[in-house]
Design brief:
about 500 residues; alpha/beta; eight-stranded mixed sheet; two-stranded antiparallel sheet; 18 helices; globular; disordered N terminus
Length: about 500
């Protein structure tokens, strides 16, 4: 199989076909694209039939059929595999819609015209007073995934409203929907799982926490179901203090956790890194690389396992330990202050031999609507591995979990975590992370993800969407804390318990 660019469409073709033809993405075709041997065509057909059930690949399957010289029975076999007609798939495939194709987008200027991306990511996100760190989360994942569809659920105990921030990000091509409890809530059996449950001064932190966990499970279930209805594919389920990152090899990470006390295993792993055969050795280190391109290029077979639509990635703490300003400012445009970005400011993390419970991404096209088990392993046996802990050496990506400063960690009003939990999160055993240029520029010529974001949307727009919003939201949050602590003011529980 090799990549072949599509040709320009005839004038008489339909608009959907025009979009397919105009896109310069790679397609699957035979080496003898314009009339090779029948054996080559049969081999190509086998690949296409195997890929057809995956919504994420249907676009490329159809492109190969419309541009290649394949055996006459291949189209019929694919239609049978999908349980429909090929014409129906052509009309309904999400990869053919304007939402995912730069040439048909209303925000063309925010895409690199010389490198359209194969597909875009979605996300399900719960927020509660996260306005200070939300802009960076949006900008980062817009660039690195790329994130183009987002459903946000706002906690009813929030003192702040993320809507103005979210509205700004719709201007660069992210389709954002905001939900309240009325949009998704499903009652459970416990009192605190009822939508009408009222929090008072006597409510325990445990019950507040349990209610939050129930909200998480219900929201993620309804969000994934909604995205499946929209025929989306890969979706991240992480928090606003977490970032999906390339799992680059670290020279100092030690033996992989799955090889402990097995010297032969460790040596074979090290050899696969050195000779470039391991998936971690094939990761692109450039700031412009995207997760979507890596998945599309099928470097790591874990994304193609039919009965595993849920993939768990290891999660690693980045603590509040500071680095010198000249260090964090390397590779950052002078207009930007790296201190306003967690991913640039905090560079000390837990060793890769230690890890927290992982976090998932889910291909919603294969989601069957099951209830969420938990946020770390939501689809149980449909997730990779045997539990929510992940061997770091086995994965192409990982999740970076930032503690941040106390000012960004604390929560106004009801805060079930507190300063003690903040201090506990700041573990002492850490290592300086420089395994990816998205976070740390090793020299003056290298850049970070922020430079790439500025290239996509323009430097002025990038400043507005990240640093300027953060400064504004920090001032607003400080005002919220002052109002809550001034004159022994009591919480307005009626407002905090508002529904809808």
């Amino acid at each position: 199989i090799m990549g072949v660019a599509a040709t320009d469409p005839p004038a008489a073709e339909s608009s959907s076909t025009t979009i397919r033809r105009r896109t310069t993405l790679q397609t699957f075709s035979s080496p003898n694209h314009h009339g090779g041997a029948s054996r080559s065509n049969r081999r190509v057909c086998i690949y296409l039939v195997a890929l057809a059930p995956f919504v994420i690949y249907q676009f490329y399957v159809l492109r190969a059929l419309t541009t290649g010289d394949h055996t006459s029975g291949c189209t019929e076999r694919i239609a049978n595999k999908l349980g429909t007609t090929i014409d129906s798939v052509i009309q309904s495939s999400p990869a053919i819609t304007a939402d995912d194709v730069s040439s048909s987008s209303n925000n063309d200027k925010y895409y690199k015209e010389d490198r359209p991306l194969p597909f875009s990511f979605s996300a399900c996100l719960l927020v509660k007073d996260n306005n200070v760190i939300l802009p960076e989360w949006l900008a980062y994942h817009y660039t690195v995934l790329p994130l183009r569809r987002l459903i946000v659920a706002v906690d009813p105990l929030s003192h702040t409203d993320p809507t103005p921030i979210l509205n700004k990000y719709t201007s660069i091509g992210i389709n954002i929907t905001t939900w309240t409890d009325d949009s998704f809530w499903i009652d459970g059996w416990k009192p605190y799982e009822k939508k009408t449950y009222v929090i008072t001064k006597t409510t325990t932190n445990e019950d507040i926490r349990n209610r939050f966990v129930h909200r998480q499970k219900v929201f993620y279930k309804m969000c994934l179901s909604k995205l499946k209805e929209e025929m989306r594919t890969w979706t991240i389920i992480i928090d606003t203090d977490e970032y999906m990152a390339f799992n680059h090899y670290d020279e100092n990470e030690g033996e992989p956790t799955h090889c402990r006390k097995n010297e032969t295993c460790a040596k074979n792993y090290e050899k696969s890194i050195r000779d470039g055969s391991h998936v971690r050795a094939k990761l692109d280190r450039s700031p412009s690389a995207t997760v979507a391109e890596y998945i599309y290029n099928r470097v790591d077979g874990v994304f193609d396992v039919v009965d595993k639509p849920c993939i768990i990635f290891g999660r690693y703490l980045f603590v509040s330990k500071e680095s010198d300003r000249e260090v964090i400012q390397k590779g950052v445009e002078p207009e930007f202050n790296a201190s306003y970005f967690h991913t640039l400011r905090y560079l000390y993390r837990a060793p890769l031999g230690t890890y927290q419970l992982g976090k998932p991404i889910v291909d919603v096209s294969r989601y069957d609507g099951m209830d969420m088990f938990n946020i770390h392993r939501p689809l149980r046996d449909s997730c990779t591995g045997n539990n929510a802990y992940v061997h770091n050496a086995a994965m192409s990506f990982r999740v970076h979990h930032y503690v941040g400063s106390w000012e960004t960690f604390r929560q106004p009003g009801v805060d079930v975590r507190g300063k003690e939990f903040f201090n506990k999160r700041n573990i002492e055993t850490t290592t300086f992370d420089k395994t990816t240029t998205r976070y740390f520029a090793e020299d003056a010529n290298s850049t970070t993800w922020l430079t790439q974001f500025a290239k996509l949307v323009g430097k002025e727009k990038a400043l507005e969407l990240t640093q300027e919003i953060r400064i504004h939201e920090e001032l607003k949050m400080e005002k919220v804390f002052l109002e809550l602590t001034n004159g022994n003011q009591e919480y307005d529980w009626d407002r905090l318990n508002k529904k809808g």
